[in-house]
Amino acid sequence: MEIRNTDETSKKAPGDSRIASALESIGYNDRLREAVSYYEARRGDWVPARITEVHRDRYVAFTAGADDKIAEMHLRLPGSMAGEGSEALDRPAVGDWVLARRVEGLDGREGPAGMIVEILPRSGILARKEAGVRQEAQILAANVDFALIVAAAGHDFNARRLERYLALAWEGGTNPIIVLTKIDLAENPAGLIAEAESIAVGNRVVATSIVDGRGIAELASLLFPGRTAALLGSSGAGKSSLLNALAGSELAATGAVRLDDERGRHTTTRRELFMLASGTPAAGALIVDTPGLREIQLWAEDEAIDEAFPEIEAIAMNCRFRDCSHDGEPGCALREALDDGRIDRARFASWTKLRREVAWLERKDDASLLRAAREKWKAINKSMRGYTKERRSKQGSSR
What we know:
By secondary structure, the chain is of the alpha/beta class. It folds into three domains: 17-119, CATH 2.40.50.140; 126-289, Rossmann fold, CATH 3.40.50.300; 302-383, Probable gtpase engc, domain 3 (Ribonucleotide Reductase Protein R1, domain 1). 28% of the residues lie in helices and 20% in strands. The chain is built from twelve helices and 15 strands. The chain has helices spanning 17-24, 30-37, 79-82, 159-171, 189-200, 216-220, 239-247, 302-308, 310-316, 333-339, 345-363, 367-380, and strands at 46-54, 59-64, 70-76, 97-102, 113-119, 126-129, 137-141, 146-152, 175-181, 204-207, 228-232, 272-275, 286-289, 383-384, 387-388. It has a six-stranded mixed β-sheet, sandwiched between helices. The chain has a five-stranded mixed barrel with strand order 1-2-3-5-4. The protein has a two-stranded antiparallel ribbon with strand order 6-7. A hairpin with a 4-residue loop joins strand 1 (46-54) and strand 2 (59-64). Helix 4 packs parallel to helix 5 (189-200) and helix 4 crosses helix 8 (302-308). The longest helix is centred in the last third of the chain and has 19 residues, at 345-363. The radius of gyration is 22 Å and the shape is globular. The model is unreliable at 1-13, 255-266, 365-370 and 380-399 (pLDDT under 50).
């Protein structure tokens, strides 16, 4: 079940062992502790908190409470963050860690309340280009360890969409896991799993069914207490049902799937961070449930695309020319691999399309504005006042 403890927030500093233990249960770690230490001299009664829900004018967060428990805290943004001209990257997202200053009675709700003072350095960011024409990133979830890319057996399974999600996961520095749901409905389960594994190229694929329980224990074994996973996928893929199966209770609303095309209606209407209680299949794990994404425009660079297609990138390194466009140049290793069947033509077409999409985005509209947005995105992933994030060197190094 979801933690909803509204005990009074402890007045002790994060360094206290009991408070540290409570915070660690919701993802607090040495990286964040080092960042918080920067503010120690002027912190006063600031407390670390983790955003679980984002509403129009307020935020809900977990923080350390009394009796070594987690408390729910209601937060607001100062005008400097919420005012006109502020950008999405400058505002907290679900999964973010923030420093908050207590303000008694600020929200008029039971339990502690406060004002957000700082957003702590992010790690493992899942983001896409904001829908529409604006050149801005939309953060889906922050401080994510695992991206659970959910696809249902049947009409929802789309190899090209999975490749997009994999690129999105790699760009943010998260470990992707492809989760096939409703595998009990698949006409050829083994073939579907094999196809997903060919797309995953070394990443884990788990086939699940909430009907017969298949794969739930296997997936739960990949999730750890204090570590965060985010569910990504289209509406009707079974994300909320999967969350409920892992939680052993109804945490998220689920809806019926249309019989004509096996697609679901949007049941999750906002992103929310849950902590799974003891006694559940994935006890102690943190999971972000997200609404189904109709549009997946990448906010990424070529490096993330290449990481989602490692077999293609490995061969491309053998091209005669470093700037080979793979479109007829002599000595093109990719064209040779296509001709002799070492590279799947559909995969190559998808890789080419995604790279062109990223290049088009870089040229679109005002190039100088886009460069500024890109630089801000890079800065978000690197540092806050001298703190440098360690990027994972290989998949699974965080386990």
